[in-house]
Each structure stands twice: as structure tokens, then as C-alpha cells.
Amino acid sequence: MKKKTSPLSKLYMGIIFLFLYAPIIVMTVFSFNSSVSTYQMDGLSLYWWKEMFRDNAAMTALKNTIILAVVTTVVSTILGIMAAVGLFQSKNKLYKKSMNSATNIPLMNPEIVTGISMMLLFVFAGTLVHQSDVLGFTTLLIAHVTFCLPYVILNVMPKLRQLDVNIYEAAVDLGCKPLRAFFKVVIPEIISGIITGAVMSFTLSLDDFIISYFTNGPSFQTLPIYIFSLTKKRVKPDMFALSTLMFVVILVLLVLMNIAQTKADKKGEKKYD
Questions:
Q1: Are the C-beta atoms of residues 34 and 44 closer than 8 Å to each other?
Q2: pLDDT tens-digit map of 197-253
Q3: Residue 33: phi, psi to the nearest 5?
Q4: Is the dihedral of CA 135, 136, 140, 141 positive or negative?
Q5: What span, in angstroms and rounded, lies between the C-alpha atoms of 24 and 39?
Q6: N or C, which end of the chain has less CB nearby within 10 Å?
Q7: Coil vs helix vs strand at 63
Q8: Residue 216 C-beta-side C-alpha neighbours within 13 Å
Q9: How far is C-alpha 119 from the geometric centre of its chain's CA atoms?
Q10: Backbone angles phi, psi at 44, to 5 degrees
Q11: Model's pTM, two decimal places?
Q12: pLDDT averaged over the chain?
């Protein structure tokens, strides 16, 4: 028997969601403001959206952010699958527990601690090779892979536990090479976890600021860092347009991820019925 939700509970949830999304709604509305004001609406216009796309620095930062997010997603997904499979096949329980605990550290660790520690590591590595300008795309990529990798592992591991290992062993016994059996049998069974981990890696890399702030260099600037640099001047609605664009992209990705996850769950339920 389902419990009915009381009106007070609905009101409480409504207040929470209003508190969470009211700033985003206001930001989105003012991105269409016809004037430069960020507190008074003088009419609706696409002027600031056009100005955003005319801004070469903003478009360069957007391109850099997408490139970084795509490369981070690819690297994190490949390494995450390999790590998850390795942990799943490991027979040493102590090793498994230790690695699972190590996987959770980047999730629990404050981002500012991760960012500062990685910056110090990169600078130290640069002094060893006598290179002062070490921060750039490579350091950003390493930093982003570091905090995105655990999300891939944690999404793939449950799917591996649900996998019937006998199917893989049967494919190998029937003459299929282990690597081919892995791609033909294992990957289709864990694909929903891979997609979820990949989308999470992309969204996390796309909007990361704190870690990127400490590990980026002057030659490579991401969109969140560019938006932050605009706050040092007078805030204009074009910054609202940039932020709205990022929010919409992440929202669409999350919706698609949830749809894919729901379809995969339904397919799995039908398979085992």
C-alpha cells in the first residue's frame, strides 16, 4: 500500500526546489534582458546571446572546455573499465578493500585540497625537469582524469557484479579469444554503467572550476575560469548567457543519462523475467 504524500511535505519540497533553482531561473531570465542591467528587466532581447557568440575569448574558452571534457571522458572511461575489471577479477580481499577505499578518496576529499596538492605536484615535477611553465592542457587533463576516474569505476563495478561470468567462460570455451569475448559478451552487459560513468565524467569535467583553477596555465583557459575572470569586472548579462548555456548542456546530458539508465534497467528486468 502506497503512502500518500501530505500537503505539508509537498510544500516543504517545493520550497527546497525553489531555493535551489530560483538563482538559476533569475540568471536565465536576465540573460535575455535588453539592457545592461543585471537587476531590472527592460524587455526581452537576444542581444547578450549574440554578444556572447561574438566574444572570441569566450568561444575559445568554450572550445577548450569541450575538448578537455571529451578527452577526459575517453581516458577516464577506458581506464575506469580496466580498473573495474581488474578489481572484479582480483581474488585478494584485502587488496580489493584497499583499492575500493583508495577509489573513494577523490570523492570524499575537498576539491580545494585536491587542486592545491596537484598543483604542487606538477610544479615539483616541473622543477625536476627544469621547466617553469609546466601548467597547461596536460596538467588539466591529468587532474580531471584523477577526479573523474572513480565515478566510472563506481558505475561499472555494480554491473560487473550482476554479470553472469558463465556466459563469458562459455564464449571462451567455444573458441572465442578472451579479448573478443570481452567486447562481445562483457561490454554489452555493462554498457549502461559505462554510459553513466562517461556522461558523469563529461559533466564533471565540463563545469569543474576549483581543481581547474589551480592546475591550469595561461596557455589554456576553460569556460568556468573565464566566467570567474568576468566577475572581477562589472557583471554583464553576457556572463548570464554563458552560465545558462553551461547549465542547459549539463541538464540535457543528465536527462539523456537518466533515460538511457531507465531503458537499460527495463531491458535487464525483461531479460531476467
A1: yes
A2: 898 899 889 888 899 999 988 888 888 888 888 777 777 788 888 888 888 888 887
A3: -70, 140
A4: negative
A5: 14
A6: N
A7: helix
A8: 20
A9: 20
A10: -100, 140
A11: 0.82
A12: 84
